[in-house]
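Hi again,

Forgot to attach this to my earlier email, sorry! This is the prediction with heme C bound. I've pasted everything inline since the attachment limit keeps bouncing my files.
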Amino acid sequence: MTFLRVIGFSLALLGFYALFAHTLPQVEPDLSEPEVVSTDGLDMEGMIALGEGLFSGKGTCTLCHNGMGRAPDTLEMDLAVTFPERLSDPAYSGVAAGKEGPEAVDAYLRESMLDPSAYVVAGFGKKGTNDAESPMPVVNAAPIELSAVEINATIAFLQDRAGMTPTVPLPSAEDTPVDKEPISAEGMVEAPVTDLMEALDNFACAACHDLNESGADLGPALGGIADRMSRTELMGAILDPNAEIAEGYEEGLMPDTLAEDMHSSELLLIVDYLLTLPAPDPSAVPDEDDGPITDAIGVIDEYACAGCHDLEGSEADLGPKLNGIGVRMNREQLTVAIVDPNAEITEGYEPDMMPDYFGDDMTEGEMTLILDYLIKLPE
Ligand code: HEC
Ligand code: HEC
Ligand code: HEC
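Structure tokens for the complex follow:
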């Protein structure tokens, strides 16, 4: 019960209700088809605009093609110089090798997207492959799944940026329609946050996922996720959560708006962090209903202290580290910090973050156990 309250607390804390309101309709089966429009009649200017929207939106290209060094910073570099360089690079032996002009660039770009490993820009290969393999996902397969028209639009956009007249075919009535409102760069109005905890808070991941013993279990625990998923799969699971549903969980519960709402830099922060999360220690899982708690670890588990504080190796940092707290606080001060956490806020932290009901919920015995434990917790 207390565990649930802690979770309930964090949900409210993380602005979950706004999210949930957003999420609820998807729990019901959505009978309407996603709104799509035919691209029949779109002119080249329209294609270029569509490509621009796709590059930072549905295509998720800016996830990697940005200034963070994971891929060439395609939107920043002078493509009129770059593309001819690629085509004449002796290391390039793809379809457009040795050719020049807009048609050759078209072929090069198409190949880059459909067969990224055909040519790997020096220094950007998958780790350990000596630039033989590209980390870039194939764009017409999951999770990106661009259609033929969308691939053409992306090429038109990049050719236009290189100062060329696009050479891609215009769409016809037979082409698959595209999503009505391809997620566009304009959707991303807010500046990206650069702090990991803020990013996790903004998107409320820990409200549903146990990122390290927060106890949340609306979604699968993400400890040790690196053993189960590659970086690309993890991104896919976040950006397109309903493409594949984790066993034992409901479809439509994980928000499917993250691709729209997140900046690529925020996604990378979160993904990098998740990949470092250790697998949970199975011996730390508390047994349920096994009588009164008789040790401090039991109290910590019962009240989820380690979900916010770095205890039992949880490395959580929503709250301050408690190591060596006995040097900074005596028993009395420590009691106040636990039962009346807002009486004094630890420097660098926000008020109303730590639950204020421990005083009501803890038995005297539990309080004694946790105080004894914290007072002696080494630095
Ligand atoms: C997961 C990261 C990732 C995503 C997502 C991604 N790329 Fe890439 N891309 C790379 C990397 C890394 C390279 C450099 C290695 C290579 O040449 O394959 C690259 C190379 C390229 C190149 C060749 C660049 C050059 O300078 O010659 C093009 C063109 C390209 N990507 C287009 C796209 C487009 C368009 C999208 C979106 C539809 C996209 N990429 C999505 C990682 C990514
Ligand atoms: C409202 C609850 C909720 C929120 C908020 C949420 N998720 Fe999820 N997530 C779920 C559920 C439920 C699943 C399992 C169903 C599915 O696969 O879509 C899931 C699945 C996942 C998976 C796949 C795990 C696996 O084992 O297959 C990953 C990775 C993930 N979420 C990461 C995140 C990240 C990162 C955030 C924050 C940016 C986040 N989630 C926010 C509920 C949520
Ligand atoms: C939802 C997150 C959360 C949970 C759960 C939580 N805390 Fe905290 N705790 C915080 C935050 C944030 C602060 C700093 C702000 C403040 O002083 O209220 C804090 C402050 C403290 C402090 C004062 C530390 C200092 O250096 O001043 C102590 C002691 C403490 N918590 C103990 C506990 C114990 C024991 C539990 C479990 C019974 C617990 N906390 C559960 C978030 C949490």
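The pocket of heme C (ligand 2) is lined by residues 19, 23, 203-205, 207-209, 218-220, 222, 225, 234, 237-238, 241-242, 245-246, 249, 253-255, 258, 270 (CB under 6 Å). Strands lie at 36-37, 178-179.

That should be everything now.

G.
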